[in-house]
Amino acid sequence: MKTVRLWLWAFAAAAFAPIIVFGANGTVILLGLVALAVPGLRAWRGAINDLARTPIGWALCGMLVIAITSLIWTPAPDVAADKLLRLVLLWFGGCAALGAISNADTNTIKWLARLLPVGICVALLFYWIELATSARIISLITGLDAAMQARFPTPQEQELFRSVYGFGAISRGAGLLAIFVWPAMACCIALFPARGKWLAAVLGGAVFVTILPLPMQAASLAMVVGAGAFFCTWFAPQRGPKVMVALAVVLTVIMPLISYHVARPEVLGIEKHQLPGSWQHRVEIWHFSATKISEKPLLGWGFDASRNIDGGNTQFVLELPDGSEKIFPGIGLLPLHPHNGILQVWLEMGAVGAVLLTLLFFGLGKSLAAITNAYGRLGGAMASASTASALCVGLLSFGQWQSWWQASLWIAALLCTGALRAFSPR
C-alpha cells in the first residue's frame, strides 16, 4: 500500500502545476483528489467520525439534510439530485484523503513538503510563459486559435480575442494559487529554518505579482485578505481567528441586505458606468439574488436552484462610460450562480442554511484556534491565511457546489494538514 500511495501522490505532484494553470475548473482536478484519497480508503471511516464530532461536521451534515429535503421543491430535482450525489461522494473522497495525509509517515510528509513550493514555482513559470506569449499554450490546448480565426477577420481583433478569453481561461487557477501558496510558504519555513522566512516572502511576492495582471481580480484581493489574516493571527494568536470568524458571521447575516442596496453605487458617490463591466455585472447579480431571497427567505429555492430561477430571461445591461448602454444576449442577471457563496446559501437554503453556515464558520474558528495551540503562531497564521483567502474567493467567484471548486477546497485542507505535519508541534 505504501508503494501505491507514493506512486499516486507522485502522479498528483507531477500534475499539480499544469492542472492549476490549464485545468483548474475541469474534471482533471478531481483525479488529483482521487490520487490523494485512494491510499486513505481504509481510514476514511475514522476521518468521517472525527469530522462528524466537530461543528464543521455538524454544519455539513445539516446542509446535506436541507439539500436532500429541498429536492421536493427545487426547480430541477433530477439535476440537483445528481449534483448532490456527486458532492457527497466528493466529500467522502476528501475525508479519505485527509485520513491518508494524517496517517502518512514523516518521510512522506517531508517529501511532499519539498514538492509543494516547487509545484507553485512551476505553476508560476507556466503563467509567465502565458503572459509573455498572450496565452499561447491555453490557446493550443483549447483550440482557441480556430475559434478566433473563424469569428474575427483582422489579426488585431484575433489577438484581442485571444488575450481576453485565453487569460480568462487560466485565471481560475490564480484563485487556487492565492489559497495554496500559504501552506507552500509554511513548508519553506519548515524546511529551511535559517532562511525559510525570506524564501517564503519571495514565493508569496512572486505569486502576487504574477496573478495581479490576470483578469480574475478576486485572486489578488484574496492574497491581500490572506496576508491580513496571517498577521492578525501572528500578533494575536487566539483573538485573530475569533475576529475573522466574527466578521464572517456578521457578513452572513447582513449580506442579503447589502446586496439589495449595492445595485445603486451612486449612494457612495460612484457612478455605475465608472465600474468595470465585470463589477457592474456582479452588482446586478447580487441585487437580483437579494430580491429573490426576499421571496423565499426561510427555506430558499432549493439546492442548486440558482441556475434555474431566472433562466437568463432578465438581461444584463452594461453602462458604458459615454452614457450609452449595451445588452449582451444570453447574459442574464443570474447566469448559473450568484458569484457569492453566502448569497448562494441564502438563495438555495434560506435562513436555515445561513444559520448552518454560521455554525460552519464557528467550527473553522475553533479549528484555527486549536491549530495555533498545537503548532504555534506560524501554523495558526498559515491556516488562517489560507482559510481567509478561500473565503474571499468564495465570496466573489464560482458556484459553491461546483465539483472542481469543492475538490480545490479539500486539496487546500490537505495541503495545510501536510504543512502542519512538516514541522513539529511546540
Brief overview:
The protein has helices at residues 2-22, 28-37, 44-52, 55-70, 77-103, 106-132, 136-142, 144-151, 155-191, 196-211, 217-235, 239-261, 277-295, 306-309, 341-396, 403-422; strands at 315-319, 325-332. The protein is mainly alpha-helical. Strands 1-2 form a two-stranded antiparallel sheet.
**Unreliable sequence segments:** none
Main sheet: strand order = 1-2
Report the end-to-end length measured between terminal Cα atoms.
Answer: 31 Å
Share of residues in helices = over 70%
Q: Report the β-strand fraction as a percent range.
A: under 5%
Let me know the average pLDDT. Answer: 82
Structural class: mainly alpha
Number of E-type strands:
2
Instruction: Based on Cα principal axes, name the global outline.
Output: globular
Describe the structure.
It is a single chain. The protein has helices at 2-22, 28-37, 44-52, 55-70, 77-103, 106-132, 136-142, 144-151, 155-191, 196-211, 217-235, 239-261, 277-295, 306-309, 341-396, 403-422; strands at 315-319, 325-332. It has a two-stranded antiparallel sheet with strand order 1-2. A hairpin with a 5-residue loop joins strand 1 (315-319) and strand 2 (325-332). The two termini are 31 Å apart. The mean pLDDT is 82. The protein has 426 residues and is mostly helical. The protein is built from 16 helices and 2 strands. It has a domain at 2-234 and 401-422. The chain is globular, with a radius of gyration of 22 Å. Helix 5 packs parallel to helix 16, helix 6 packs across helix 16 and helix 12 (239-261) crosses helix 15.
